[in-house]
Amino acid sequence: MEFDSARLEMVSQRFRREMWTSVVPEAVSESGVEVERFGPVQATAFGDLPEILDLNQIQGAAEPGAIEDGHLAAAIEWMRQREVHFCVPVSEARPGAGAAHAWLGARGYEQATGWLKFIRDLSPPEFEVDHGIAIYQLGGEEIDGEALSAIIAEAMNLPAPAGTLFFSLPQQRDWRCYTAALAAGELVVSTASMMLDGDVVQLGPGNTVERARGHGCHLALLRRRLIDAAANGCRTAVVELLGCDPDNLSSAGRNLCRAGFELAYAGRVWQRPALHPAVY
Question: Is the domain covering 134-234 a CATH 3.40.50.12240 domain?
Answer without folding.
Answer: no
